[in-house]
Write a structure and sequence with these properties.
mainly alpha; Ribonucleotide Reductase, subunit A; 13 helices; binds fe (ii) ion
């Protein structure tokens, strides 16, 4: 058998999983399977009553609509990037097994936003075109779409140092920036409603998504660090400077997005807190991929780290009863 490598092994080899070499990839895969969920399991009745009643201010509605607009399409960009850009170049079977699981989760997430829009009777045309119509959303999306496009060039490969560096840049752009920074002010906004016991159906869906996304982020960081460890020549001072600059630019885009969602502050949140929060999480991401921290900002939302670990939310799973079809429950007649 050819030696297992994260990149630059045979692209079309049989996916021979065992023996595992990258146990972390398999663990992330099992972890993803343990967290399986579906949007329709979450009851939306209370949210519908709140949305249609007079309980939400125009500013609160704006936050909800902007985030539905951003996430509904951003999820599809992540899925596209896995299928069109990452899968071909990650040549390790256990990582590919994880990528298949992640791609399915991104489909669930896209589905989730359609389910919410439909449940609340929102204007789909308005929500699903925000990626074009709202500048601060378009800015974030274009930033990541450019990274997918670079890898779709038919000449692209990871055999050269330059190619492998571009690939690492794509992984940082999606795992660290899109799923690790661009998603997080939206998570904090939507979970703030949940903390006030309002729009709890949406809150619960965002909590499921946040749990999935934190696994995606952890896989991405292991993959990036693994590729760099196996290919130390890619980790040049130039690449490090380029990645740091990209993350800095992403922080500005994310702060602009938060300001646009919350021009006047609601829910005890305001744009200044988001500046700190986005800078705080950017520092955490930088240190995990071995880059110097940049901001030193405090974390204004310490409750977010609790929200990531759902086990701490005692009653979370008691709101719905879920029964999965087991093979015994399937009928063949
Ligand atoms: Fe997602
Ligand atoms: Fe994701």
């Amino acid at each position: 058998m050819t030696e297992k490598r994260l990149i630059n092994a045979d692209v079309v080899d049989v996916n021979q999983l065992m023996p595992l070499k990258y146990h972390w990839a398999w663990e992330h895969y099992l972890n993803g399977n343990r967290n399986h969920w579906q949007p329709q399991e979450v009851p939306m009745g209370r949210d519908v009553a709140t949305w249609k009643g007079g309980d939400l201010s125009p500013a609160e509605r704006r936050v909800i609509l902007r985030n539905l607009g951003f996430f509904s399409t951003a999820e599809s960009l992540v899925a596209n990037n896995i299928v069109l850009a990452i899968f071909r170049h990650v040549t390790n079977p256990e990582c590919r097994q994880y990528l298949l699981r992640q791609a399915f989760e991104e489909a669930i997430h896209t589905h989730c936003f359609h389910y919410i829009v439909e449940s609340l009777g929102l204007d789909g045309e308005e929500i699903f075109t925000m990626h074009r119509e709202v500048n601060t959303i378009a800015g974030k999306d274009e930033f990541d779409m450019a990274l997918t496009a670079e890898l779709m060039d038919s000449d692209f490969n990871t055999q050269t140092v330059e190619g492998a560096q571009k690939f690492v840049e794509n992984l940082v752009g999606f795992y660290v920036i899109m799923e690790g920074i661009f998603f997080y002010s939206g998570f904090a906004m939507m979970l703030s409603f949940h903390r006030q016991n309002r729009m709890t159906g949406i809150g619960q869906q965002f909590q499921y998504i946040l749990r999935d996304e934190s696994t995606h982020l952890n896989f991405g960081i292991d993959l990036i660090n693994g590729i760099v460890a196996e290919n130390p020549r890619v980790w040049t001072p130039e690449l490090r400077a380029r990645l740091s600059a990209k993350i800095e630019r992403a922080v500005e885009l994310e702060i602009a997005y938060a300001e646009d969602c919350l021009p006047h502050g609601i829910l005890g949140l305001n744009a200044g807190l988001f500046r700190d929060y986005v800078q705080h999480i950017a520092d955490r991401r930088l240190e995990r991929i071995g880059l110097p921290v940049r901001y030193g900002s405090p974390n204004p939302f310490p409750w977010m780290s609790e929200a990531i670990d759902l086990k701490k939310e005692k009653n979370f799973f008691e709101t719905t009863v879920t029964e999965y079809q087991s093979s015994a429950a399937l009928s063949w007649d």
